[in-house]
Amino acid sequence: MFQVLVVEDDDNLSKLMEAILKQNGYAPICAKDGEEALQVFDQEHIDLVISDIMMPKLDGYELTKLLRDVDPYLPILMVTAKEAYEDKKKGFLLGVDDYMVKPIDMSEMLLRITALLRRAKIVSEHKIVVGEYILDYDALSVTWRSEIMTLPPKEFYLLYKLIGYANVIFTRRQLLDEIWGMDHEVDERTVDVHIKRLRERFYDCKEFEIITVRGLGYKLVKNV
């Protein structure tokens, strides 16, 4: 059973999350702020964290930074009333995996938790298998049967991101922020160029394809 740490200073919301998680087979542990959450980590194994941002003593940003220093693969879902782009950007740059804005749809929260736990397993193993293709994060390589192709880092990270979140639409800006970070020398056309190169490399791939979603961005679709 997965243990989920809920870090939320709103008692009503915390109790609701706890009840929903229990009903769906998770083992929730609740903390009222970041300091209490760190105490829980000293005593329990935690599989996923759901954290508010605005909390007394130690807020969600500070908690995320501390947790990332210890465990780079721990899934962290940020839940907050702060919906401005800059707030989300700060959270993602600190290491948040996903973001939900209050009021929370509990059904959607459960879907996101499932996806984050699945991806955490993929990332911790550093490999993704799609049909006969194996993506090795450490080697920046894609193996197909006995052939090994080593990709330039940005191309590999882009492909790994899209495959890890198959069927999820990403805007060019989202991909730039995550893969190129704070590099101000690149713009959104850079993503288009790298997508074009990936399509050329895998033009005869039957297992997956990268789709352009007009007016939005890109998504990867698996055919296996």
Give me the secondary-structure topology.
Elements: E1 3-7, H1 11-23, E2 27-31, H2 34-43, E3 48-51, H3 60-70, E4 76-80, H4 85-94, E5 98-101, H5 106-125, E6 127-130, E7 133-136, E8 141-144, E9 147-150, H6 153-164, E10 170-171, H7 172-180, H8 188-201, E11 208-213, E12 217-222
Parallel strand pairs: 1-2, 1-3, 3-4, 4-5
Antiparallel strand pairs: 6-7, 7-8, 8-9, 10-12, 11-12
Helix pairs in contact: 2-3, 6-8, 7-8
Textual characterization of the structure:
By secondary structure, the chain is of the alpha/beta class. Helix content is 44%, strand content 24%. It contains eight helices and twelve strands. It has helices at 11-23, 34-43, 60-70, 85-94, 106-125, 153-164, 172-180, 188-201, and strands at residues 3-7, 27-31, 48-51, 76-80, 98-101, 127-130, 133-136, 141-144, 147-150, 170-171, 208-213, 217-222. A five-stranded parallel sheet has the order 2-1-3-4-5, sandwiched between helices. The chain has a four-stranded antiparallel sheet with strand order 6-7-8-9. Helix 6 crosses helix 8. The chain is globular. The two termini are 28 Å apart.
